[in-house]
Amino acid sequence: MNDSFIAIPAALAAAFGLAAYAGRYPDSEIFGPAITHTNSPRKLAITFDDGPNPTMTPKLLDLLDRHKARATFFVIGQYARQHPDLLRETAARGHVIGNHTDSHPNLFWSSGSQTRDELHRCQDAIATALNAPPRFFRPPFGWRNPWLAAAARDLNLQVVTWTLLPGDWRAETDDWLVRRLDPISAHARSSRATGGDILCLHDGNHRAQNADRTHTLAALDQCLPRWRERGLEFVTMNEAVSTPAS
């Protein structure tokens, strides 16, 4: 057999592997820069994807108020248009709103024009509700593509990934999710950390509204006071990238 026929599938597999790494790995910058950590090991950025969700987002806002914590909510444009009042309430309580596309596609398979349209439509929905455009963007499922960096740059958006994705959407019990959040405490105790964690949770579901996120709510109610006792500061993405006080 001709060696070239063996090399071609191997090269294709390697190319696909590189593309998958570039598109999905949170720390990869092959498809453009991304914020992957906060700029201080004491700063914890709690983020929520896939809202606004009228069933759960108000409960999370109340929980965050009780614990004096601020967070960042990456919202889906079509849901933002359905619930602009909830978006405004979230911002009024001191939280940051971010762009999470208009319909939550996997951008890895999207064309350049589809990518731009998804970002623009969500950006317009948020700006209409809040009279100000968002600064931050999180790609659905974490997947990026070669056109995303330019589309984000055109809208003055900074791409944000995460350090911890505990899978709260599939949590079966509160304790299961609390255990999955243990790395936050471990990092807080580490003396080797150079940056802080960005935690990715969910207040909604991209497939439908009114998703049940009670395990997320209960797990945070347990973990927030523990994290504060370990000296962590709960920050929005604005604060996560601001210059730490000297």
Written description of the protein model:
By secondary structure, the chain is an alpha/beta fold. It has ten helices and seven strands. It has helices at 3-24, 57-66, 77-82, 84-92, 112-130, 148-154, 174-180, 182-189, 214-229, 237-240, and strands spanning 43-51, 72-75, 96-99, 136-137, 158-159, 198-202, 233-235. The strands form two sheets. Strands 1, 2, 3, 6 and 7 form a five-stranded parallel beta sheet that branches. Helix 4 (84-92) crosses helix 5 and helix 7 crosses helix 9. It is globular, with a radius of gyration of 19 Å. Residues 7-21 have low confidence and may be disordered.
Give a quick rundown of the structure.
The chain is α/β, with parallel strands linked by helices.
Structural descriptors:
alpha/beta; two-stranded parallel ribbon; 5-stranded parallel beta sheet
